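Weekly modeling sync, notes
Attendees: S.R. (lead), two postdocs, one rotation student

Agenda item 3: backlog of single-chain predictions. S.R. asked that every request posted to the team notebook include the full sequence so nobody has to chase files. The rotation student volunteered to paste the first one in as an example of the format we agreed on. Action items at the bottom.

Example entry:
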Amino acid sequence: MAGPMERIQVLDDIEKDIITCLQCAAQALLELGKEKSSQKQAETNTSQFLRTLSQVESKLSDQINYLTQVSTGQPHEGSGYASQKVLQMAWHRLEHVRSWVNELDRLKASHLASANRTSAGIPNGSMTSSGTST
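Predicted structure, as returned to the notebook:
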């Protein structure tokens, strides 16, 4: 959606809209409180109040939806969560592979030790590593 600076700017705009909304409501109430109030001016301020309030509600809903996505860990544009999760899974796979390699090394060493014990009991007439007979 947007970077951190854009998000802060959106929040600043929402704050300004809230101030405008409160000013329109105050103006409408002041107009209605006058002895000779102008119906048209009160309606204009009330309409502006309602439009601004609707915009604030919409913008705040967008912000709440964004924060809900972030807090639940769902990946979203600009989020580091997905990358962090991929890295965590890669580390987990790496550790799993290391454990398998260590297990294979242990089996290899065990097999070689067993083969060495068996070959120690073979008489001298066996083949050498070069393929010649002794």
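Discussion: group reviewed the output briefly. The mean pLDDT is 82.
Action items: rotation student to repeat for the remaining queue; S.R. to check formatting next week.
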